[in-house]
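Structure, all two chains, one model.
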Amino acid sequence: AQKITQTQPGMFVQEKEAVTLDCTYDTSDQSYGLFWYKQPSSGEMIFLIYQGSYDEQNATEGRYSLNFQKARKSANLVISASQLGDSAMYFCAMGRGSNYKLTFGKGTLLTVNP
Amino acid sequence: GAVVSQHPSRVICKSGTSVKIECRSLDFQATTMFWYRQFPKQSLMLMATSNEGSKATYEQGVEKDKFLINHASLTLSTLTVTSAHPEDSSFYICSARPGTAVNNYGYTFGSGTRLTVV
């Protein structure tokens, strides 16, 4: 069975600094997708970034980048120039299979300090 | 971008009653929608996959008779919590994945429904 591991229950970062949120995954599939979502206290799930298993370059979306190390099965999220509004829960997820169901990690609560 | 509307955002119901939650894709057709449940400070757990025009596929341990899913059209899926009990209180959230190239890998989530059973 596939598994997503986020080892950091909580992280703190100073405003304007960069932060890396860790994510490792376990799958025997060759084709899969890795996602990061942000969940603020309101509960909505906000899509941040996607990395396909066959993508050779790391994905970037504005201040978000995904450090994809396939051999290590890791997909860490890097947030540059943190902002107070970045304070939220962050979930790593993997999608695979014909229905492309998502499996989520337990999440990391990021707090950005002024 | 792809938008998924979920209603209601909050609902309080009495124990023993049923509650229906709607999930609509507003600007795309969704042959498949997903329903998740999230307990406080925990991750999202997939409950079921809703398929338009056919029966939903439930994950192991999810009672299909308690959580009724109907996907009657390409833009609407409903989750009905039947005979609700306090332990059903949770945050329920749906997601949909466009079947076209508009966003062929990104899932869009509804805003969630916080159910409280008293």
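The radius of gyration of chain B is 14 Å.
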